[in-house]
User: Which sequence fits this backbone?
């Protein structure tokens, strides 16, 4: 089957298509059927990126989900009373759920388009009145948007006729659809126009910071509606990047950035932390359940319920904060501040100078903090090193427009090995402490002992993992500070 | 893949009508079905409105110059494909004779589409030939329409003998009465007195019905253009017995 689509905006009448075909074939036009199609995808268009189209159709017999790959149906499933947004896990089990879930992952499916279409099946016959091709003419009803589509179904042994039909329809301005077109995904880090090393640093910073605040805005509705956990995560990433950028670019920025805006974004970051932490525990729970040897996975249901209750409480605080006048003002005035920054015409430092200085400083800080760590160092010192590593990473990302791409990618890869070890080390620490705290809270409201015992087992497991991460640290740090990696970073910081 | 052949040494007994209607019923049930019109006269091909032409002719198929799949045609019915007749099939005996295992060629050709179809009907020309020997090899079931008349039954004797004499695996023979006229005493008597020779005789009798003759003008199976007719019911009953 091939799918042909009218050019953007063109709405050829179904009549025109039929008249054109009638020149070569006798037509048997079937009755018109109106179908409602709801297009579903994740917020970041993961299905589309995977070449998939998921639509929900209202049929008299009930709601149907149809999954297409490059326009061709691959599988379908009946759904009763589906409510969107929902995770793929909420779909009826089967091949459709498996295929959709593999692409959507952690993200919820939501309605990204809605249209009503009038479809007609047309049989095309030759002079013996034999059917030699079939065509579906598919027209959006007035006001529902979308393009007129013609699907040509070739019949075995009649490919020549199908090609003829395709040629006739193409002659009307239709073009083949190869996979469905995705709406472009806006990325928070993309600078508006390429910036050179000699451009003022403030110009680069204004662009980068503007990208971050766009990402925050785009993800905000998903956070408020609690669509899936990634919306909040992406808001937090944008906030964290903003804060790091403000910090590492202090030498190039006006004083108010430090006095006014750094605390403002710290407030925003802190506002989002409790819910994100609980999200992480809830997401990790299935993995944690697999660690249990002595206890039963079912013993964790109490923890699960406790986490959900706590999350509901914390979400109320979060939503109140995000709907507050304070937050609204923050966004508004931040836009204004960035606009002023872009026009401030402070020619120095240049983007190149700031990049060299920032990457160099961040790199030296990592090396210094890491070298000071010995077997006896407290966990806190690894925690500090982790922060330094993050700062170096953000510096590399922020100054991406003015640094060499292959060198930057290699440096980020080197850094990632070290960050993974430090991340695991600290996550174990934090989770262990959190589990202790949860256990305390739960004991006061009469949770059965086995639930707490199961959590004890998890704490034991985290302990072992943390030790393992600690043991891997020396190797990872040595790998990061090896001569070739150090040389690469010095070059990224402007050394010849 | 199940292979059924409609076969009789005698002509004009209802082989093609049976193959076309049962194939349509099989496809209607959702089974992927193929009809191979082996008769150079192309009666089944005509009924399905397909042009009786195979590129390179029977020779290209038998010699494997062209794959069977390249000659397939979709019919107007879902799940039902046709391998059309070609006038060159009249020389198929000679083409088969040139091959190595000359009685097993059809069977091997059908192997190439074994994954694509659940049911295959072979509509055979009326004769005893190398083609029919190949059909015996390829078919799981030989569907034999019989006109209840003494002469007609004599050829049934010959047919069962032919099947018994053929070397290798032989198909199950299922005979049924076709174009029977219940009002004719002769028909009744013949049906009752028929020597079975170990063959299975289906319960279903397809009587002489003029609507079946209309298939040639309507160019479609009776089961498609008159699905509730008595004729269609008879074919449904027959398909339930042999399918
Ligand atoms: N049950 C029936 N009642 C009336 N006419 C029938 C019946 N079955 C077949 N016919 C008609 O008899 C003629 C021969 O039937 P058909 O073509 O099916 O037989 P055949 O055995 O395939 O013939 P051939 O040997 O020529 O291939 C056709 O005109 C057909 O319409
Ligand atoms: Mg015939």
Assistant:
């Amino acid at each position: 089957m091939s799918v042909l689509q009218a050019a953007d905006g063109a709405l050829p009448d179904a009549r025109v298509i039929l008249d054109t075909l009638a020149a070569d074939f006798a037509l048997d036009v079937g009755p018109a059927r109106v179908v409602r199609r709801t297009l579903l995808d994740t917020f970041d268009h993961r299905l589309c990126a995977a070449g998939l189209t998921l639509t929900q159709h209202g049929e008299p017999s009930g709601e149907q989900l149809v999954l297409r790959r490059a326009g061709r149906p691959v599988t379908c499933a009946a759904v009763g009373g589906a409510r969107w947004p929902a995770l793929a896990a909420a779909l009826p089990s089967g091949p459709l759920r498996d295929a959709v879930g593999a692409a959507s992952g952690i993200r919820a499916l939501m309605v990204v388009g809605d249209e009503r279409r009038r479809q007609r099946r047309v049989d095309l016959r030759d002079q013996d009145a034999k059917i030699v091709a079939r065509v579906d003419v598919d027209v959006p009803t007035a006001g529902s948007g979308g393009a007129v589509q013609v699907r040509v179904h070739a019949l075995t042994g009649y490919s020549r006729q199908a090609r003829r039909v395709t040629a006739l329809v193409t002659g009307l301005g239709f073009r083949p659809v190869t996979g469905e077109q995705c709406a472009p995904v806006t990325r928070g880090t993309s600078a508006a126009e390429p910036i050179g090393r000699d451009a003022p640093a403030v110009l680069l910073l204004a662009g980068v910071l503007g990208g971050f605040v766009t990402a925050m805005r785009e993800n905000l509705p998903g956070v408020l509606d609690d669509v899936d956990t990634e919306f909040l995560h992406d808001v937090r990433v944008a906030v964290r990047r903003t804060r790091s950028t403000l910090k590492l670019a202090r030498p190039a920025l006006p004083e108010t950035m430090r006095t006014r805006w750094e605390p403002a974004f710290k407030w925003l970051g802190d506002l989002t932390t409790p819910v994100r932490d609980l999200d992480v525990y809830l997401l990790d729970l299935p993995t944690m359940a697999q660690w249990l040897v002595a206890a039963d996975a079912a013993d964790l249901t109490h923890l699960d319920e406790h986490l959900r209750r706590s999350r509901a409480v914390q979400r109320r605080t979060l939503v109140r904060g995000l709907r507050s006048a304070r937050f609204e003002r923050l966004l508004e005035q931040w836009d204004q501040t960035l606009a002023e920054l872009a026009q401030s015409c402070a020619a120095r430092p240049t983007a190149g100078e700031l990049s060299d200085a920032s990457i160099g400083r961040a790199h030296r800080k990592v090396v210094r903090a890491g070298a000071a760590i010995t077997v006896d160092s407290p966990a806190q010192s690894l925690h500090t090193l982790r922060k330094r590593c993050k700062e170096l990473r953000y510096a590399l990302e922020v100054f991406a427009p003015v640094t060499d791409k292959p060198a930057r990618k290699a440096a980020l890869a080197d850094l990632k090995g070290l960050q993974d070890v430090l991340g695991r080390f600290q996550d174990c620490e934090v989770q262990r402490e959190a589990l202790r705290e949860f256990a305390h809270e739960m004991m006061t409201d009469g949770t059965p002992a086995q639930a707490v015992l199961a959590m004890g087992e998890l704490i034991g497991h985290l302990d072992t993992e943390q030790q393992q991460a600690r043991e891997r640290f020396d190797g990872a740090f040595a790998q990061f500070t090896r001569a070739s990696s150090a040389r690469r970073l010095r070059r990224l910081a402007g050394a010849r | 893949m199940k292979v059924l052949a409609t076969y009789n040494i005698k002509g004009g007994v209802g082989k093609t009508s049976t193959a076309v209607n049962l194939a349509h019923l099989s496809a209607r049930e959702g089974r992927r079905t193929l009809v191979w019109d082996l008769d150079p006269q192309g009666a089944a091909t005509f009924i399905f409105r397909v042009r009786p032409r195979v590129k390179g002719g029977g020779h290209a198929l038998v010699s494997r110059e062209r794959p069977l799949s390249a000659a397939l045609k979709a019919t107007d019915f879902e799940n039902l494909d046709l391998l059309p007749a070609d006038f060159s099939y009249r020389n198929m005996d000679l083409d088969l004779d040139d091959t190595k295992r000359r009685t097993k060629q059809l069977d091997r050709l059908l192997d190439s589409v074994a994954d694509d179809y659940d049911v295959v009907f072979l509509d055979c020309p009326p004769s005893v030939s190398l083609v029919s020997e190949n059909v015996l090899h390829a078919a799981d079931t030989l569907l034999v329409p019989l006109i209840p008349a003494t002469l007609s039954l004599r050829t049934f004797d010959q047919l069962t003998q032919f099947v018994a004499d053929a070397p290798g695996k032989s198909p199950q023979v299922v005979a049924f009465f076709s174009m029977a006229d219940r009002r004719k005493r002769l028909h009744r008597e013949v049906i009752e007195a028929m020597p079975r020779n170990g063959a299975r005789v289906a319960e279903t009798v397809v009587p002489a019905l003029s609507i079946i003759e209309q298939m040639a003008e309507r160019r479609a199976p009776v089961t498609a253009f008159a699905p509730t007719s008595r004729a269609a019911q008879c074919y449904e009953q027959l398909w339930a017995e042999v399918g």
